[in-house]
């Protein structure tokens, strides 16, 4: 089957996209906006979140549309991490639009929208490996971005408070994503 032959390459693309998004899209802006302590704390909490989620899923029998197994568990982890990381992206959008910097809001929303495409693919790949249908893969990929408009609206209304949270929340998302890559996705690729 041709799809099966492509799967290692797709896992590799997923590892690369999520790693680059974590470092360039989350850690660099976190370090630009906050202190090393805030970023380090966010990273640590993000790693702890992923490891606790993974441990919880290992103790439970997880099924999606009648499918189960390691591919489903990985799919749920990827979905959960991307869902959680969408909220800080929403904060960034709302904060950028509320700022006085011309064009910043549009720039941030376009950058995040472009990043959402490979992230959605990252959700679909483990679901496909578990045998889950394309329609469910599509809607799971779309659903990972649901927190973005909510976070954007809240941050826009409360910009001063959320601007201070951006370094920690970006680092949290980066920590969760990088640990997901290290403990789930990279081993799957190899």
Q: What labels describe this entry?
A:
190 residues, mainly alpha
Describe the protein in words.
There is one protein chain. With 190 residues, this protein is an all-alpha fold. The protein is built from seven helices and no strands. It has helices at 2-33, 36-59, 70-98, 104-129, 134-143, 147-157, 159-189. α4 (104-129) packs antiparallel against α5 (134-143). The longest helix is centred in the first third of the chain and has 32 residues, at 2-33. The model has no long low-confidence stretch (mean pLDDT 83).
Entry summary:
Helices cover 86% and strands 0% of the residues.
Instruction: Name the average pLDDT.
Output: 83
Morphology call: globular
H/E element string?
A: HHHHHHH
Strand segment count: 0
Taking the sheet with the most strands, its summary is: none
Content of β-strand: under 5%
Task: Please give the structural blueprint.
Elements: H1 2-33, H2 36-59, H3 70-98, H4 104-129, H5 134-143, H6 147-157, H7 159-189
Helix pairs in contact: 1-4, 1-7, 2-7, 3-4, 3-6, 3-7, 4-5, 6-7
């Amino acid at each position: 089957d041709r799809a099966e032959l492509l799967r290692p390459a797709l896992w590799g693309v997923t590892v690369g996209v999520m790693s680059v998004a974590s470092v360039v899209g989350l850690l660099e802006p976190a370090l630009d906006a906050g202190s090393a302590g805030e970023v380090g704390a966010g990273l640590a909490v993000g790693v702890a979140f992923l490891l606790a989620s993974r441990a919880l899923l290992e103790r439970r029998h997880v099924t999606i549309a009648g499918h189960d197994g390691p591919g489903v568990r990985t799919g749920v982890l990827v979905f959960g991490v991307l869902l959680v990381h969408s909220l800080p992206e929403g904060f960034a959008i709302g904060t950028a639009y509320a700022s006085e910097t011309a064009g910043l809001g549009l720039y941030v929303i376009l950058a995040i929208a472009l990043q959402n495409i490979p992230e959605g693919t990252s959700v679909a790949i483990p679901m496909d490996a578990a045998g889950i249908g394309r329609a469910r893969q599509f809607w799971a990929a779309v659903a990972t971005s649901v927190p973005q408009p909510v976070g954007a609206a809240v941050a826009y209304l409360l910009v001063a408070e959320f601007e201070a949270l951006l370094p920690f929340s970006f680092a949290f998302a980066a920590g969760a994503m990088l640990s997901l890559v290290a403990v789930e996705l990279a081993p799957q690729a190899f």
